[in-house]
């Protein structure tokens, strides 16, 4: 008999209008890394939330070490040694690392905190597993990778032996991902069991022992990673063959659409400029990709181009018009479409309906309003058109509240809106972040199609695969400057990595020329 | 896939209605009111068990005996409720309705006393002046918020005081308006008073119609115009509204001006109400007290889920309970006890958002129960839980005594019920306005 630490048997969980988990069985062995793979909306997160006590399953049972357990809330889960790192971290931003780790299980004596003891234990754990943190740093001042370590330490501090990672790599740089993989292997060696939610096949191949694949709420099967291939996994996950490379013709660059000259953007967090004297052009019919490790000024560069932030120097020209000081609406009218980095913060109004969101960039056009009054029918017709054309799936069509839609469909809605809008330049910032391979393939196709329609595309991406596959020209950003311009056909990931880490540059520092 | 074929906007469908957001807000409000009433009864029972039943019955039904007064007292809190609720739709917490209300009152008084106008339009001019006064007092916090990012809660609280002291000072310094011997304003000319609806012994006047129409207009603005679209978009997600190129600064200022205008109108409606006694009028007492109707507006807005239509009903309800409360004092309850009971009811009403969540949980449980029983009827109520709007419940003020008190009726239970001010004429007035004898 196998040694299963956790068994989830025949779990069924329904939400209004949808069966999120349909009779799913998942067995976790002691000391294994078990990946849970599936598209967005396949039911991975729901299943883990059932295990962690955030949801109650309608049917099925959960066993730990063969004993049936009843997990009503996360406290129950914790008591059973189940810990979870959520995709969006649950940290108190203005508390220190140590305070966050002990939150909820503060060691007390007569009502007084025993921080010293806690600190010793945290340091011990951090030593043991190579999770280096400074316990006195404030969370909001440390990097996302560090924050994740804090989340992991939280689980260890509670002596959890079953660790759930919900898409832990979505926010990490390639280097941090490698470190995380090592840490996970270390845990497995120590006898801890890991459930690893992801849709990145490379990571599964690299680190997991077994993998359970979900598809539209159903369990497709559990496979040993040794005996499978990336292609087979993706077929199981999507239900069809997936093309990993992006099919596209040679770019035929036309006129300059966007021209950025000596752009400088101050940083919000430190005294140095976040973007320092950056110049480049984007032409019609080409995809220019800004590559770089997160936090090297890409966000600020895009914010300045799209008007979310003010530039302190330099000029931005869109379709021959100086838009350096123009407001966002003017930029939009001049021909800029923008797929924002954070779709829930900037891209959507989650409590509005799908149709209201689909006209978010156009509601003021005469087509949709008459003397300030909303024209309902044209909006409905337009929404229906986009929903059909871009295959945006939702429970109640145009009347769906966007908050209830899956991440992939939310992103599809944004892409539909931005691509359908009249534009010459499409600024797409991490358009596939957190999406599954099926959706990624779709979005890449749309972006390439938009390029072939003669639009200029400025793509900002942290995913090296995306950078290499989609772009026609790569600009590498490092510490607020563009340090290299590369041709994706004549370079490889290793070389790109050297530029991204600042070890190499092929463009001279313009600053020094100027001075 | 399960795509967009399920909606049918025109068909009357009870299932659809029961599953809408506004329906769940409505049921939650009813539940909140019910709980408030239960607790109110407990308070009355604790205070005087023998009279509790009859007193409580009077509290609930008393309003029906004085329907005119219910609508008359509902008018100003309807307007201040709109002032709070409308701004709240944009995510602004307009706690300055009191100051805007007081300014509206002053502007209306000023035009009423100082401008000679034809009879037919004098009161209209006064009402418009009141609106402008409130608008001004909403505009200033709006400007501060939009251009300097100063929190509107702080500015508008401070503007409550500034407005109140300013108005008291201006009135005391004006010989035409102020009667120093009586520490109140003089009687307004009849031309400046709003036409009465002619209900005997009641001050109810056409302003209740105006208020209801304004609420409906605001509802239309929110639902049908691009301004309303922008306003609510900003309230839901400020970042996304910026991203979509909406002019957030302009919208903040306009919203605060509309909110201020509503509160200002409330003040004008209150002070310009006709008197039941010929030759007198409502008066304002500059006695350094912030108008309670402004704060009652917060309770009205919360109970009405910030929806203008909801606010119409919540204003009438709160006014009804207050009328009933004053009548319940006939049964030997101290006015303070009645005030506490009313406060408890309103306080619970403000929990309607919480009730919403509780209701959602309850429905979920029931659904779960149903799913064990395949024959069960599994319709209705799916998105009761989506309402995430929450107001600071603790901010709800107790319903103070009515701002405008007909002191000629001082012997009837309908007169003002709270702390009497030592006054030679024996008027029992706590608040700043009263009707002449």
List the helices and strands and how they pair.
The complex is a heterodimer of chains A (515) and B (437).
Chain A lengths: L3 E12 L2 E12 L3 E5 L6 H8 L7 E6 L2 E3 L4 H6 L2 E4 L11 H6 L5 E2 L2 E2 L1 H15 L14 H14 L4 E5 L7 H16 L3 E6 L2 H7 L2 E6 L2 E7 L5 H9 L17 E11 L6 E11 L3 E5 L6 H9 L6 E6 L2 E2 L5 H7 L1 E4 L3 H5 L6 H5 L10 E2 L2 E2 L1 H15 L16 H14 L4 E5 L7 H16 L3 E5 L3 H7 L2 E6 L2 E6 L6 H8 L9 H5 L1
Helix pairs in contact in A: 13-14, 14-15
Chain B lengths: L13 H5 L2 H27 L1 H17 L1 H23 L7 H18 L4 H30 L3 H21 L5 E2 L4 E2 L21 H18 L1 H11 L1 H6 L4 H24 L10 E3 L7 H12 L4 H21 L6 H15 L2 H21 L31 E3 L26 E3 L2
Parallel strand pairs in B: 4-5
Antiparallel strand pairs in B: 1-2, 3-5
Features:
heterodimer; A: 515 residues; Rossmann fold; six-stranded mixed sheet; 24 strands; disordered C terminus; B: 437 residues; three-stranded mixed sheet; 5 strands; globular; disordered N terminus
Which percent bin holds the helix content of chain A?
25-40%
The CATH architecture of the largest domain in chain A comes to: 3-Layer(aba) Sandwich
Helical stretch tally of chain A = 18
User: What class would the helix/strand composition of chain B place it in?
Assistant: mainly alpha
What is the number of helical segments of chain B per DSSP (H or I, 4+ residues)? 15
* Mean of all residue-level pLDDT scores of chain A: 86
Largest sheet of chain B: 3 strands, mixed
Descriptive account of the structure:
Chain A is an alpha/beta fold. Chain A is built from 18 helices and 24 strands. Chain A has 3 domains: 4-238, P-loop containing nucleotide triphosphate hydrolases (Rossmann fold, 3-Layer(aba) Sandwich), CATH 3.40.50.300; 244-335 and 423-515, 3-Layer(aba) Sandwich (Rossmann fold), CATH 3.40.50; 342-422, no CATH class. In chain A, the strands form 6 sheets. Chain A has a 6-stranded mixed beta sheet, with helices on both faces. Chain A is globular, with a radius of gyration of 24 Å. The N and C termini of chain B lie far apart (73 Å). The model of chain B is unreliable at 1-11 and 374-437 (pLDDT under 50). Chain B has helices at 14-18, 21-47, 49-65, 67-89, 97-114, 119-148, 152-172, 207-224, 226-236, 238-243, 248-271, 292-303, 308-328, 335-349, 352-372; strands at residues 178-179, 184-185, 282-284, 404-406, 433-435. Chain B has a 3-stranded mixed beta sheet with strand order 3-5-4, with no helix packed on it. In chain B, strands 1-2 form a two-stranded antiparallel sheet. Classes of the chains: A alpha/beta (515), B mainly alpha (437).
